[in-house]
Amino acid sequence: MTKRIRKGMSNVITRAMQEYEEGEKVAIVIDPSVHKGMPHPRYHGLTGEIVGKQGRAYIVKIRDRKKIKHLLSYPEHLRKVT
């Protein structure tokens, strides 16, 4: 996961300030310019549901085949699904 140096940290501040409600659907889209709170790259592109909040991070419930998993992720790596 690399990002071109010319791209920089675009829109990181606005995405860091986003608030999500419990039960809201989100997509996990990893932003490589922010290393903290980054979920494992295997979950990039998956859709989950916000279950709760732990500090600044959100707890996202995803389905990994037949198992249900909970991931901790910062809001910079999440996007709302409509």
Q: What's the CATH H-level superfamily name?
A: Ribosomal protein L21
Task: State the CATH architecture.
Answer: Roll
Q: How many domain modules?
A: 1
Number of helices: 1
Main sheet: which strands, in order across? Answer: 4-3-2-1-5
Radius of gyration: 12 Å
Question: What is the overall pLDDT average?
Answer: 90
The ordered string of helix (H) and strand (E) elements is HEEEEE
* Shape summary: globular
Estimate what percentage of residues fall within beta strands. Answer: 35-45%
How would a crystallographer describe the biggest sheet?
A: 5 strands, antiparallel
Question: TL;DR of this structure?
Answer:
With 82 residues, the protein is mainly β. Helix content is 6%, strand content 37%. The longest helix is centred in the first third of the chain and has 5 residues, at 12-16.
